[in-house]
Design goal:
461 residues; binds 2-oxoglutaric acid; seven-stranded antiparallel β-sheet; binds fe (ii) ion; alpha+beta
Length: 461
C-alpha cells in the first residue's frame, strides 16, 4: 500500500493538538488519502457534549463491556438491512475482533434507536449521534471542517453514558426517514443510507404545481444550452470535462449507485476510532478503502462486507472520459506533451463513491493509497460529479488559502493524473438546490452531491 511506504506528508500536523495514541499517530504520519490537520484538530475534545472532559479513547482503550442499559436503551435489536448476508447478520451481533475497541463495545450494546427523523430535508454535518451541536460549515480553515467530533469516552462507565446519550439524543441523520448508515463508531445496526428519496422509480410522485413544472422546463433548457461548455486544462495532467456526462447517463449512474449503496457493502458514514466522522457517506467498489488505516483491502473491517464489484457500465464512462481528454489535449498542437504522457491511460478497478448532503465537505488531502505501481505511473484519478454543485479546491499544498477553486457541477468529469496525480484537493462546500432538476427528478436523488472517484489500484503492463 502506498500509505505504508513512508510517503508521509510530514507536515501540518500539530502534535500539541492531537489526542491520538502514538500508534495511531504513526499511522497518520504515513497518511495518504489523508484528510489533513483539520481532522487531527477536530479530534480535540469539544466544550459541549456529554463527555467533553473525557480524554481520547485511543489513549486508554475501553474493553468490551456488557453494561446494564438504562430502560430507554433496552429495546429490541434492529439488524442492519438488507439482511441478505448471513455474515453481515452475524457481524452485527458479534462484530469482528477489529482494531475498533469502541465499535466493538458499542456494537455489543446493540444500539437500536431509530436513526433518523422523518424530515426530508438534508442536513448532514450533524454530529447527531452524540447529541453534540451541529457543526456549521464555515470554511476549510475550521478545525472541525473535516471530521465531526464525537467525544470519546473516558472509561467503561463513560462509554455507557455515551451510548445512553446516543440513544436519547437527536436523530443521527435528519435527512430522511429511511436513512441510516452502518458506520464505524456509532451507527452500527442501521439500515444502509439511501441516496435517493422515497421510491427511486418515481412511482409515488406527487403532482407538482404548474409554476414548478415551468421552472423545471426553463432550467432544463439552460442545462441543455450549458452542455456546450468546453473542456479546460487546469494544469498539466489536470483536465476538467464540463458537462461530459449526459443527463440520462447521470440518472443511470445515480440509480446504479443507489442500488449498490443500499446493499451489502453499501453506503456508510466513515469514522475514526477516536470518534471523528467524515461528513459524507461512502461506499467503495472493487476494493474497500479504509479511512482509518488508509489502505485498501478486500473487505470492510467494521462489518466484514465485501465491496460491490465495479460495474462495467461505469468503466465504460471512465474510458470515454479519458479518451475525450486525450482528444482535447491533442488540440494543443505539436510542441505540447503527448496527451497519453501528460495523462496516462488507465483502466479503473476501484472506485470511492461519496455522497455529500448539503452540509458535506472533504478536507484537503492527496490520494496516494493506491498500489505503488499505479502511483509510479501516475495513473489518473477520474472523478464524476452528480447532483448538487461542489466547490472544489486544489493546489500544491494543504493550504486552503493558496488553493484554487472551481465549481464541479452535475455531469462534470475531472481528471488528475501525470504531474497532477498527487495534488491536494478537497470539497469546501455543496451548493444547495443546484442540481439539474431533470436529474433529481428522474433519479429522485436526495439533496446533495454524489461523487465517484475511479482509480486503477495496480498497474499491470
Ligand atoms: O468529492 C470530490 O470531488 C473529491 C473526492 C475525493 O477527493 C476522494 O474521494 O478522494
Ligand atoms: Fe481524493
Amino acid at each position: 500500500m502506498a500509505g505504508g511506504r513512508g510517503r508521509g506528508r510530514g507536515d501540518g500536523r500539530n502534535p500539541a493538538t492531537s489526542s491520538s495514541s502514538s500508534s495511531s499517530r504513526q499511522r497518520k504520519a504515513r497518511g495518504s488519502r489523508d484528510f489533513g490537520p483539520e481532522t487531527e484538530r477536530s479530534l480535540e475534545p469539544q466544550k459541549e457534549g456529554p463527555s467533553s472532559s473525557s480524554p481520547s479513547v485511543s489513549s486508554k482503550k475501553p474493553q468490551m463491556v456488557t453494561p446494564v442499559l438504562p430502560k430507554s436503551l433496552d429495546s429490541p435489536v434492529q439488524p442492519r438491512k438488507p439482511l441478505n448476508s448471513p455474515l453481515m447478520m452475524a457481524k452485527q451481533v458479534h462484530p469482528p475482533k477489529s482494531q475498533y475497541p469502541l465499535v466493538q463495545t458499542v456494537a455489543s450494546i446493540q444500539i437500536s434507536k431509530p436513526l433518523n427523523s422523518s424530515s426530508a430535508s438534508c442536513g448532514s454535518g450533524t454530529v447527531g449521534s452524540l447529541d453534540s451541536p451541529v457543526q456549521p460549515w464555515k470554511s476549510l480553515d475550521s478545525p472541525l471542517m473535516m471530521a465531526e467530533q464525537v467525544q470519546p469516552p473516558k472509561s467503561q462507565d463513560s462509554l455507557v453514558q455515551m451510548v445512553a446519550s446516543m440513544q436519547l439524543s437527536k436523530p443521527l441523520d435528519s435527512s430522511s426517514a429511511s436513512t441510516g448508515s452502518g458506520a464505524v463508531g456509532s451507527d452500527l445496526g442501521a439500515a444502509p443510507f439511501d441516496i435517493c428519496m422515497g421510491n427511486s422509480k418515481g412511482i409515488f410522485k406527487l403532482n407538482r404545481p404548474l409554476h414548478e413544472i415551468n421552472k423545471e422546463k426553463r432550467l432544463r433548457e439552460r442545462e441543455l444550452s450549458n452542455s456546450a461548455a468546453p473542456p479546460q486544462r487546469l494544469r498539466p495532467g489536470m483536465v476538467l470535462l464540463k458537462n461530459f456526462l449526459k443527463l440520462d447517463d447521470q440518472v443511470e449512474i445515480i440509480k446504479l449507485c443507489r442500488e449498490l449503496g443500499v446493499g451489502t457493502g453499501g453506503f456508510y458514514q466513515p469514522g475514526y476510532r477516536e470518534g471523528g466522522k467524515l461528513s459524507l457517506r461512502m461506499m467503495c467498489l472493487g476494493k474497500n478503502w479504509d479511512p482509518d488505516s488508509r489502505s485498501y483491502g478486500d473487505i470492510r473491517p467494521f462489518d466484514g462486507a465485501q465491496p460491490p464489484q465495479m460495474p462495467q457500465e461505469l468503466t465504460k464512462f471512465v474510458e470515454e472520459a479519458i479518451k475525450a481528454s486525450h482528444d482535447f489535449l491533442k488540440q494543443r498542437g505539436k510542441g505540447a506533451t503527448e496527451p497519453s504522457v501528460e495523462l496516462p491511460q488507465m483502466s479503473p478497478d476501484i472506485c470511492i463513491v461519496n455522497f455529500y448532503t448539503t452540509g458535506g465537505k472533504l478536507g484537503l488531502h492527496q490520494d496516494k493509497d493506491e498500489d505503488e505501481s499505479s502511483l509510479e505511473k501516475r495513473l489518473p484519478v477520474v472523478s464524476f460529479s452528480l447532483g448538487d454543485t461542489a466547490e472544489f479546491l486544489y493546489g500544491d499544498d494543504r493550504d486552503v488559502d493558496k488553493a484554487s477553486k472551481i465549481k464541479l457541477e452535475s455531469g462534470d468529469v475531472l481528471i488528475f493524473g501525470g504531474q497532477s496525480r498527487l495534488i491536494f484537493h478537497g470539497v469546501s462546500g455543496i451548493m444547495p438546490k443546484s442540481a439539474p432538476l431533470m436529474v433529481t427528478d428522474k433519479a429522485n436523488l436526495r439533496p446533495g452531491r454524489l461523487n465517484l472517484t475511479f482509480r486503477q489500484h495496480k498497474y499491470e503492463p
